[in-house]
Amino acid sequence: MQVRTLCGSLRVGSTDGAHTQARFNRPGASCILPDGTILIADIGNNLLRRMNKSGLVETIAANETRTNIIEPTGLAFVDGHIYVSDSGHNRIKSISIETMKIDKIFGNGKKGFYDGRSVDAMFSKPQGLYANQDGIYVADEGNSAIRMITKDGNVKTIVSGQGMKGPNGICLGNEDEIFITDKLNHCIYQFKDSTLRVIGGICGRCGFQDGFNSLFNSPTSITYANDGALLIVDSGNNCIRRISSDRLGVETIAGPLPTNNNDDDQVNIININNHLIHPDRLTSLQ
């Protein structure tokens, strides 16, 4: 699989512009809007950015995000609204695509673990989001739980504990199953029929190994592919991994950054541009 830079460069900043002229600071989650533009959570700048089909990057909802959102770690779009994990405030916020204003807030801002109405519920460092017509699924990392914001605006817990330490990424499959990356446990879960089981990696063991006895290093994001396979951001290993549709094997499909043997301990800039360094999130093209 070939890695190609769409926008941004090795330089940190917040400058808008075309393709590699744009600057980011820890870009993380992204999602595709109905018009084909790509929405990007610029975590280090506490901003939302978007790239149009021509490759032009611009900052959106700047007044809303700069003053109201700290560390936007998750993004999802459904029914005309952008949902953002406001990790620094322990909240999920909704931004109307028409007005680019925050119109709904879920969580009271206090760090905690409580289900209920949007104004009463509590989260702890919410991370990845997944949206469908049933609601918004939240990887609530600090509470080691998967939560859900229902259509009526209430928050409920889908699964908590059961060995999870740091659920960070989340997606749904085609058979009422939820897939979860556990960043702190270095493994991948499937949650189905009220049962949580490991389908990738060995819980609590960090490493890099393909095959049936796979190992991961701080996986942060997951998405469900058209063929039923799972694509995972293995952040600590600087690569993208794939779990086969039969869940029997793991392979590396992009990265990792090659080991450098130069005496000056520097990596050639050409190698950096063709590989990944601490990738964070994946965007589904479905």
Radius of gyration: 18 Å
Beta content comes to 35-45%
Largest sheet: 5 strands, antiparallel
Q: Write down the secondary-structure element order.
A: EEEEEHEEEEEEEEEEEEEEEEH
DSSP strand tally = 21
Low-confidence stretches: 258-274
Q: In whole angstroms, how far apart are the ends?
A: 18 Å
Give the C-level CATH assignment of the largest domain.
Answer: Mainly Beta
- By secondary-structure content and strand pairing, the structural class works out as mainly beta
Q: Treating each run of at least 4 consecutive H or I residues as one helix, how many helices? A: 2
CATH architecture of the largest domain: 6 Propeller
Helix percentage range: under 10%
Total of domains: 2
Describe this protein with a few key phrases.
2 domains; five-stranded antiparallel beta sheet; 21 strands; four-stranded antiparallel beta sheet; 286 residues; mainly beta; Thrombin, subunit H; 4% helix; Neuraminidase
Describe this structure in words.
Residues 258-274 have low confidence and may be disordered. The protein is mostly beta strands and 286 residues long. It has two domains: 7-160, 6 Propeller (Neuraminidase), CATH 2.120.10; 165-258, Thrombin, subunit H, CATH 2.40.10.500. Strand 18 and strand 19 form a beta hairpin. The protein has helices at residues 62-68, 269-273, and strands at 17-18, 27-32, 38-42, 47-51, 56-60, 72-78, 81-86, 91-96, 102-106, 126-132, 135-140, 145-150, 155-160, 167-172, 178-182, 187-192, 195-200, 219-224, 230-234, 239-243, 250-254.
